[in-house]
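Appendix B, example 12.
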Amino acid sequence: MPVFTILPYDREAAVAYARKWAYGRNPAFYDYSEIGGDCTNFASQCIYAGAKLMNFTPVYGWFYRSANDRTASWTGVEYLYNFLVSNDGAGPFAREVPLAELQRGDVVQLGKQTGDFYHTPVVVGFSEGEILVAAHSYDVYGKRLSSYNAAVIRGLHIEGVRK
């Protein structure tokens, strides 16, 4: 198994990216809004801004080269979760944590009572004990997480980046 160096995740870069692109689309990435939603694509872009490193493992990695050359984890809610919590290779890695342990630059995922998760906002701040998020599909920045009507919410704390 390769030896990796663990680098810090640049939370401020992730949040700065979210701020810049919350109400727009970076032309370097395809906009999936009309074909299933752009939320996890946007979250991946934010994470990439903070990680500065992709994982080019075919199928199970986390990368974007073009709309047709990317992993499912770049754009799919469950696939991103599976990549982040099980990644022991290059790129960002995370663990599921209680919402109280989230920091700026982390992500949350909203789900139905059935356990199906459908939305991936990025944590951009905190106000009066509330988590504030940015997201695409329904573009927002600084929206209170509590204003979403989700049956289940899970938090993913990005612990670092392996290089």
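Strands lie at 6-7, 64-66, 69-70, 91-97, 107-111, 117-119, 122-127, 130-135, 140-144, 152-162. The chain has one domain: 6-162.
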